[in-house]
Amino acid sequence: SLLSTHTHQAMQMQHAPEEAAATAPAVDLANATAAATEQKPDDAGPQVAELMEIDRLTEAGIPAADITKLKTAGIFTVPGVNMVCKKDLCEIKGLSDAKVDKIIDAARKLSAAGFVNGLGFMAQRKKVVRITSGCAALDQLLGGGFESMSITEAFGEFRTGKTQIAHTLCVTCQLPFQMGGGNGKAIYVDTEATFRPERIRSIAERYGIDGDAALENILIARAHT
């Protein structure tokens, strides 16, 4: 994963997804958007941490040619460099031990990798966004919704709502912050060929979002495992 912080949460889903969705109150996207425009910039919502692209290493004096070699090896972000051990970096063709040391040092300085005190960690936590599941009861169990900058695992028996939750989050993550969304987009890695655009349209209608607009903000990739 390219995220700098990972929190693993596991939960057993026991209710059908349709029943869960029915418990959530309807929302008015138009009114919420209008309210957002009246807010001051500081009140617009939490700031989502950005993943620094690996090209930022040029700011620390790393040659573009070496950055290209990192990209060829599948490393595209500065935090991604920190997640690869030195031994593996040295195995990249064209990168000597000395070059790897400079790359690691530059990546750590840019991403402020290392220890941080409690106050610093609290400041980082302010960037966390909680995305509504569409079910008030489930959001309460999760402490306000699915947490960003983390990994949440939903597991359960067949037809307990795991795929429905994934589809719902693809839509709710696009909602404004004040509506329990993340004001963002979604990436859906489909390992079981279960992504259904028509389900996205149905969920989007519930929130007053145009179905085509919602689908345009979702990237889907089929993964064969």
Automatic annotation (TrEMBL):
Spans annotated as Disordered: 1-25
Polar residues biased stretches: 1-12
Gene Ontology, cellular component aspect: condensed nuclear chromosome
InterPro entries: DNA_repair_Rad51/TF_NusA_a-hlx, P-loop_NTPase, Rad51_C, RecA_ATP-bd
Domain RecA family profile span(s) in chain numbering: 127-225
GO terms classed as biological process: chromosome organization involved in meiotic cell cycle; DNA recombinase assembly; DNA strand invasion; mitotic recombination; reciprocal meiotic recombination
Keyword flag DNA-binding: yes
Pfam family, one: HHH_5
Domain of life of the native organism: Eukaryota
Key words, A-Z: ATP-binding, DNA-binding, Nucleotide-binding
Gene Ontology MF term list: ATP binding; ATP-dependent DNA damage sensor activity; DNA strand exchange activity; double-stranded DNA binding; single-stranded DNA binding
UniProt-recorded name of the protein: RecA family profile 1 domain-containing protein
Organism name: Neobodo designis (Flagellated protozoan)
